[in-house]
UniProtKB/TrEMBL annotation:
GO cellular component: ATP-binding cassette (ABC) transporter complex; outer membrane-bounded periplasmic space
Sequence ranges assigned to domain Solute-binding protein family in this UniProt record: 83-419
One of the GO BP terms on file: peptide transport
Species of provenance: Treponema pedis str. T A4
Domain of life: Bacteria
Phylogenetic lineage: Bacteria, Pseudomonadati, Spirochaetota, Spirochaetia, Spirochaetales
Protein name: Oligopeptide-binding protein oppA
Amino acid sequence: MKKIKFVLSAAALLLVLSCSNKESGKAETERPIYIGQTWILEAEDPLNASVPWSMTSSGISETVYMLDESGNLYSRFIKEVERIDDLKWKALMKEEAKFSDGETVNAKTLCGAMNEIMEKNKFSNATAGIITFMPLSDFEFEIKTERPAESIKSVFAEWSNVVFKRLENGKFVFTGPYIIEKIDAGNELVLEPNPYYPNAENRSKVIIKLFKDEAAMKLAYSAGELDMAFTVTPEVAKMLEAEKHIVKTVDAGYQYFGIVNTASNILSDINVRTALNFGLNREDYITALKGGRIPSGIFASYYKFAGNCSLKYDKQRAQKILDEAGWIMGSDGIREKAGKKLELKLVTYPSRPDLTVIMQIMASQMQELGIKPYTEIVDNIDGKAKSGEFDLILYAQHTAPTGDPSFFLNQFFRSEQAKNFSRYNSAKVDELLKEMGSVDFDKKINYAKDIQEIIFTDLPVLYLVDPQWHIALSDRLKNYKPYCGDYYIVNSELFVK
């Protein structure tokens, strides 16, 4: 009898513990996940410039194809794609993905969204030109590109191409794992689980808080007010690690580079651009950032299509180039030519703190060359770039978010494209980009390397740093795996421990 009582007592204890664990798990799910970032989404318009990227990063929208943690393309919408000819494709859809209002995504809604994006967001036209989509049945549609695109899946993964539906009231619904509860512009973004996304019951509400000040974000994290600080500076990362906090260091996939205004009075001169390229010591940036690599081109070193360019610091050579170009050192330490001072306007933005560190060091390096720098930090960096009111912009971009080099190269270096902020115009590069759209991936690798060599010669951009990022996590998110830079910060796998 005592044995039976013991067994029953043990069973009762296990039941209590099981219920307790379930309640604990439920409580953890009900408690919001707090994320600190240096930027937050302030609108939900899928047709507005780079807003679609921000929405996907925040877990609200999804592109037709996306990257997984291993860098492989996958789609919740497309079952298979068949190529018909150079410009035409046929897609067969899956029948499972739903919008956040519960309606299944079909060919009509997907094609309608894509056609509107192609018409209204010029960033979507970079790789294959304007693409037209036509439904053939409920879950089958035709795709026709303006220019050949060997990998239509990679085009579908470009950040502009998000799946959405416009409602009768003019608002939009999306397909991501989260929906917007509240946007408090300049302060916070509140998200709740999309009930029609798989495993919604296991997700917590997410609150993304904006921090313009790195020190304030560090204090909030250290005080237990944040589950994730994305990202923290190397100095902060070191302090947090010393305090036994969880900090993950990852290859960003992003590249830090200088966009040269080739139409400016001074940097239109290739001699000045070349002198800058030799006179900037990238090792100083890496030392200050406590991590990263000297780049070999415009792509992260782990990609097969990364460049083979060799950046060399040679201050004396830089000075000699400027001397021979007629820029003579003045008594005030500033070079002058035909009565004009060698002055450059450097611009960057606060949401990438690493860039402000680089800009401070770069300004000092320029002074050593006899160049007088003027520095400016602006919130709307793309607006500044479009205005042309700069000489050199320090910029950060994930240059291969689809695992393919085509998107970035077309966006930034094809003549007249929306993000060709350097005003670069190269018939040779345009021709290579055109040919690149018609070749398989293995051949595309060589095209990408060749284009990077031409860019290294012409210098519409200056390669600066292949960086690493530091993300601080609470114990609740210790299993969180950041990947693809900040393209998927809030993703379907953002579960608490």
